[in-house]
Records
---
Amino acid sequence: MSTTDKPATAAQKALGDFAPKLAELTDDVLFGDVWERPELSKRDRSLITCAALVATGKTEQMGFHFPRAIENGVTREELVELITHLAFYVGWPNAMSAMTRARELLGRKEP
C-alpha cells in the first residue's frame, strides 16, 4: 500500500498542503517514534504533554491533546486536578485559560 492510499493524519489535514515536512515529522518522528517509546506509557506522555501545554499557555493545542489524554487513560478528574495543581506553579491565568478550554472540550460533570 502506498502512502497515498493511507488515510490522512491530523497533521496532514492541518498542515500537509502548506508545510508537508512539518506534517511528516509530526507523523513519523513525534507520533511514530517519540510517543511509541516504551520508557513511558502513552498515559504518562499525555499527562506530561498536557502539563507542558498548561504551563506554556498553548490553549489551541489542548484541543488535540486533552481528548487524546482521555483516550490514553487519563480521567477528566485527573486533568482538572493537573490544571488546579499547576495554577500554583505556572500562574493563575494559565490555569484559568486551561480550565476554560478543558471545560469546552470535556464538558461539564454530570450531576
---
Amino acid sequence: MSSVLFVVSAAQGWTLADGTVHPTGFWAEELAEPHRLFTEAGWDITIATPGAVKPTVDAGSLAPQAAGGEDRAAELEAYLASIDDRLAAVVDVASVRAADFDAVFYPGGHAPMEDLAVDTTSGALMTAALDEGIPLAVLCHAPAALLAARRQDGSWPFAGYRMTSFTDEEERIGGLADKARWLVETELVGRGAEFVGGAPFEPHVEQDRGLLTGQNPASSERLARAVLDSVG
C-alpha cells in the first residue's frame, strides 16, 4: 500500500503588514480533494502539523463564492466533517521522516505563510524528500514553506527548480496583496526559483524532477493526480 504524508499549517491567523491578523487556516478544497483522491486510490494517509495541533479550516474557503457554489461548499464541508477524527489525531511534523512515505503533500491557504514559511523542521523534511527522490507536492500558498528549507552551507535546495504558486496577480485580484508583508511568488523568484504562472484561478501544475507544485485551489485535483501518477 502506498502512503502519503500531508503536512498542514497549524496557524489560525496570518499577520498582515499593519500588524492585524487575518483569520485563516488550510483551504478546504486543497486538503479535502487530494485527501479524497488518495483515499479512493487506497493510500494510507498521515497528517502532520507543527506541534501536532489540530489544523483549522479557513472559513472563507467554505463560502459558496470561494468554493464554487453552494453544493460544492456543502460537499467540502461534509467531507471535512467525515475526516474530523483524522484531523484531530495529527502527529507532530518533528516526529516524521520523509523516507517513511511514498509522497509528501502540502495543502495551502494563507496559513503556511504564518508558520511553515519559517519552520526549519518542515524545511528539513522538504529537503529530505527532494534529496531522497520522494515526490513533494506543494499547493497554492504552501510553496511559502519551501522558503524555510536550507542546506548546511546556507543555500536554498530549490534554487533553479521550475515551480508555481498562488501568483502575485491572484493575490492582487483577491484584494490582499497590498496588505501582505510579502508575497509568495516574489519571494520564490528572489530565492532563485524558475517561476511559471498560469492564468489567474485556472488549474496549473508544474513538475520539475521530484517537485510538483500547483498554483491555486483549482489545481488541487490535478496536483493530486500528478502525485498518483508519479508514484504509480
